[in-house]
Amino acid sequence: SPKNTQLRPVAPVATRSCTKARNGAIPVPGPTMMGVVDAIGPGVSLPAGQRVSFTTLGSWSEYVVVSARGLVHVPPGISDEMAAQLFVNPFTAYAMIRESGVQPGDWLMLSAAGSAFGKLVIQFCKRQGIRTLGTVRRPDLIVELKALGADEIIDLSQEENLSKRVKEITEGKGVGCILDAVAGETAAQLLPCLRPGGTMLVYGALSLADMPINAGLLIFKNLTIKGFWLTTWMRDAAPETRQDVAKAVIGLLASGEIQLPVEATYSLEQAAEAVTHANREGRGGKILFKL
Question: Which of 19-28, 59-68, 120-129 has the lowest mean pLDDT?
C-alpha cells in the first residue's frame, strides 16, 4: 500500500497475552514494540531511521510492514526500552480512561489493580481527579497501591459481598465504569458494582474462562459490556484523539513522573523462555526482546 511503512523492530515486548498464540486464541505473538523506519510507501513522509512505537501482532520479526496511520513518533528523551512499552500499558491505560467517560470526582473500578497496567490507571486517574477503586487478591499490595493514589482497594480473598462493599464506598451509587482484565467469575462479581447506565470495559481474560452474565442486571440497570483492544481503537479513533493521547502519555514518561521498569531482555531464540517469564507472578517489570 502507498501508505504502508516497513519497520525494523528493535525492542519487541513479550506479554502474558502471547501465551494465547500457543492455543490459537490469537494468530501470532508480539503485540507491541519499538522500531525504526526502514522503507516507506510513496504516500508516507517519515524519514528513514525515525524511531516509532506501534501495536501490531507479529512484531517478533526482523521486519514488519504496517500502516503509517498507527505509528507514534518517539522523541529523543524516551529510551528504546520505554518506547517499546508505550502501547502495551501506558497508551492503553490512558485511552481506556478516556473511553470510560468517567469524570473528575466520579468512581472508576478496576480488577487486577496490582498489575503494571492497574498501577498506571491509578496514577493517571489521580492526575485527572478520578477516584479509583481497585480489587486485588494479595493484601500485601494494598499499601503500595494507595501510595500510588488509589482511593480504595478491596481484597477479594477476604471480601464476601463485593457489591455491598462497593455501594458503601460510593454512598450507594455504584461506579461509573469497570476496567476488567480477568473475565470469568470475577467479572460476574464486578458487574453488580456498576451504577445504572454504567459500563464494563473488558480488556483481558486472565482467568481463561467465559463470563457468566446476569441478563437481569443488563436489562434493568441498562448496563453495557464492551471489549477494548488497542489495535482496534488505534484504527478507529480520530487522528486528533490519537495525537492527544500520545502527547499526554509521552509527556508523562519524558518528565519522569511515570516509570516503566524492564525486568529482563531475551533474544528471539529464547522466545519460549521469555513468554514463561512474562507469565511469572510478582514480576517487577516488563520482558523485552533485544534485536
Answer: 19-28
pLDDT tens digit string along 266-279? 887 888 898 888 87
Is pLDDT larger for residue 117 or for residue 19? 117
Domain 4-85+260-289 sits in CATH 3.60.15.10: no
Q: What is the pLDDT of residues 15-37, one digit of tens each?
A: 666 555 555 555 555 567 788 99
Residues 123 and 202 sit within 8 Å (Cβ to Cβ): no
Q: Are the beta carbons of 94 and 251 closer than 8 angstroms? A: no
Residue written as grid cell 473475565: 183
For residues 157 and 154, give the distance between their C-alpha atoms in angstroms, rounded to a whole number: 9
HEC states along the chain? CCCEEEEEEEEEEECHHHHHHCCCCCCCCCCEEEEEEEEECCCCCCCCCCEEEEECCCCCCCCEEEEHHHCEECCCCCCHHHHHCCHHHHHHHHHHHHHHCCCCCCEEEECCCCCHHHHHHHHHHHHHCCEEEEEECCHHHHHHHHHHCCCEEEECCCCCCHHHHHHHHCCCCCEEEEEECCCHHHHHHHHHHEEEEEEEEECCCCCCCCCCCCHHHHHHCCCEEEECCHHHHHHHCCHHHHHHHHHHHHHHHHHCCCCCCEEEEECHHHHHHHHHHHCCCCCCCEEEECC
Q: Where in the chain is the domain with CATH 3.90.180.10?
A: 4-85+260-289
260 close to 273: Cβ distance less than 8 angstroms:
no
